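TL;DR need C-alpha coordinates for one chain.
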Amino acid sequence: MVEISASVTVNAPLEKVWNIVSDLDGEPKFWKGTKEVRNISKEGNVVIREITIAFKDSKCMQTVTLYPKEKVHATFTKGILNGTKTLSLSPKDSGTLLEATWDIKLSEMMGMFTGMVKKHIQSGTEQALASIKQEVER
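>> reply
TL;DR here they are.
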Protein backbone atom coordinates (compact mmCIF):
# COMPACT_ATOMS: atom_id res chain seq x y z
CA MET A 1 0.00 0.00 0.00
CA VAL A 2 1.05 3.54 -0.71
CA GLU A 3 0.31 6.13 1.94
CA ILE A 4 0.28 9.78 0.96
CA SER A 5 -0.62 12.73 3.13
CA ALA A 6 -0.64 16.49 2.83
CA SER A 7 -2.30 19.32 4.72
CA VAL A 8 -2.89 23.03 4.56
CA THR A 9 -4.29 25.62 6.95
CA VAL A 10 -7.03 27.66 5.31
CA ASN A 11 -7.74 31.11 6.70
CA ALA A 12 -11.50 30.68 6.62
CA PRO A 13 -14.27 29.14 8.70
CA LEU A 14 -14.72 25.37 8.50
CA GLU A 15 -18.15 25.73 6.87
CA LYS A 16 -16.70 27.69 3.94
CA VAL A 17 -14.02 25.03 3.35
CA TRP A 18 -16.64 22.28 3.65
CA ASN A 19 -18.76 23.91 0.93
CA ILE A 20 -15.87 23.46 -1.53
CA VAL A 21 -14.64 19.97 -0.58
CA SER A 22 -18.14 18.50 -0.34
CA ASP A 23 -19.01 19.66 -3.87
CA LEU A 24 -18.19 16.32 -5.48
CA ASP A 25 -19.05 17.52 -8.99
CA GLY A 26 -16.47 20.30 -8.66
CA GLU A 27 -13.61 17.94 -7.86
CA PRO A 28 -11.92 18.13 -11.32
CA LYS A 29 -11.56 21.92 -10.86
CA PHE A 30 -9.08 21.35 -8.00
CA TRP A 31 -7.84 17.79 -8.49
CA LYS A 32 -6.01 17.74 -11.83
CA GLY A 33 -5.67 13.95 -11.65
CA THR A 34 -9.48 13.67 -11.78
CA LYS A 35 -10.54 14.42 -15.33
CA GLU A 36 -14.24 13.62 -15.11
CA VAL A 37 -16.88 12.64 -12.55
CA ARG A 38 -20.10 10.78 -13.29
CA ASN A 39 -22.47 10.25 -10.38
CA ILE A 40 -24.40 6.99 -10.62
CA SER A 41 -26.49 7.06 -7.43
CA LYS A 42 -26.95 9.00 -4.22
CA GLU A 43 -28.57 7.70 -1.10
CA GLY A 44 -28.37 9.90 1.96
CA ASN A 45 -24.74 10.92 2.37
CA VAL A 46 -23.35 8.13 0.14
CA VAL A 47 -22.59 8.67 -3.55
CA ILE A 48 -21.62 5.92 -5.99
CA ARG A 49 -19.70 7.37 -8.91
CA GLU A 50 -17.34 6.71 -11.75
CA ILE A 51 -14.32 8.93 -12.15
CA THR A 52 -11.90 9.20 -15.02
CA ILE A 53 -8.35 9.75 -13.80
CA ALA A 54 -5.49 11.28 -15.76
CA PHE A 55 -3.38 8.11 -15.66
CA LYS A 56 -4.14 6.59 -19.08
CA ASP A 57 -7.71 7.99 -18.87
CA SER A 58 -8.52 5.08 -16.56
CA LYS A 59 -12.01 4.76 -15.13
CA CYS A 60 -12.44 3.94 -11.44
CA MET A 61 -15.53 3.31 -9.37
CA GLN A 62 -15.83 5.02 -6.01
CA THR A 63 -18.14 4.99 -3.06
CA VAL A 64 -17.96 8.44 -1.45
CA THR A 65 -19.33 9.05 2.02
CA LEU A 66 -19.85 12.61 3.24
CA TYR A 67 -19.50 13.20 6.97
CA PRO A 68 -20.85 16.78 7.16
CA LYS A 69 -18.28 19.39 8.15
CA GLU A 70 -15.87 16.61 9.18
CA LYS A 71 -14.62 14.55 6.21
CA VAL A 72 -15.14 13.23 2.70
CA HIS A 73 -14.16 9.56 2.47
CA ALA A 74 -13.78 7.96 -0.98
CA THR A 75 -13.25 4.22 -1.38
CA PHE A 76 -11.99 3.02 -4.75
CA THR A 77 -14.05 -0.09 -5.48
CA LYS A 78 -13.09 -0.93 -9.07
CA GLY A 79 -10.34 0.12 -11.49
CA ILE A 80 -6.59 0.49 -11.34
CA LEU A 81 -6.68 2.06 -7.86
CA ASN A 82 -7.70 0.16 -4.74
CA GLY A 83 -7.95 1.83 -1.36
CA THR A 84 -9.11 5.15 0.03
CA LYS A 85 -8.73 8.92 -0.20
CA THR A 86 -9.95 11.00 2.75
CA LEU A 87 -10.26 14.75 3.13
CA SER A 88 -10.58 15.77 6.79
CA LEU A 89 -11.41 19.18 8.21
CA SER A 90 -10.84 20.46 11.72
CA PRO A 91 -10.81 23.90 13.32
CA LYS A 92 -7.33 25.37 13.77
CA ASP A 93 -6.76 28.73 15.42
CA SER A 94 -9.04 31.11 13.50
CA GLY A 95 -9.08 28.93 10.38
CA THR A 96 -9.46 25.35 9.21
CA LEU A 97 -6.94 22.53 8.88
CA LEU A 98 -7.59 20.59 5.67
CA GLU A 99 -5.84 17.22 5.49
CA ALA A 100 -5.75 14.74 2.62
CA THR A 101 -4.69 11.13 3.15
CA TRP A 102 -4.46 8.34 0.62
CA ASP A 103 -4.05 4.66 1.38
CA ILE A 104 -3.99 2.97 -2.01
CA LYS A 105 -2.37 0.39 -4.18
CA LEU A 106 -2.35 -0.11 -7.92
CA SER A 107 -4.16 -3.19 -9.12
CA GLU A 108 -2.63 -6.10 -10.98
CA MET A 109 0.12 -5.30 -13.49
CA MET A 110 -0.04 -1.58 -12.70
CA GLY A 111 1.98 -2.22 -9.53
CA MET A 112 5.20 -1.60 -11.44
CA PHE A 113 4.19 2.07 -11.79
CA THR A 114 3.64 2.58 -8.05
CA GLY A 115 6.67 4.84 -7.51
CA MET A 116 5.84 7.09 -10.43
CA VAL A 117 2.15 7.26 -9.54
CA LYS A 118 2.92 8.02 -5.87
CA LYS A 119 4.96 11.08 -6.90
CA HIS A 120 2.15 12.29 -9.15
CA ILE A 121 -0.51 11.78 -6.48
CA GLN A 122 1.60 13.52 -3.81
CA SER A 123 2.25 16.48 -6.10
CA GLY A 124 -1.37 16.58 -7.28
CA THR A 125 -2.65 16.45 -3.71
CA GLU A 126 -0.43 19.33 -2.59
CA GLN A 127 -1.51 21.33 -5.64
CA ALA A 128 -5.22 20.55 -5.01
CA LEU A 129 -5.03 21.67 -1.38
CA ALA A 130 -3.28 24.89 -2.42
CA SER A 131 -5.99 25.53 -5.05
CA ILE A 132 -8.78 24.89 -2.53
CA LYS A 133 -7.09 27.24 -0.05
CA GLN A 134 -6.77 29.93 -2.74
CA GLU A 135 -10.43 29.56 -3.79
CA VAL A 136 -11.78 29.69 -0.22
CA GLU A 137 -9.64 32.65 0.83
CA ARG A 138 -10.75 34.86 -2.07
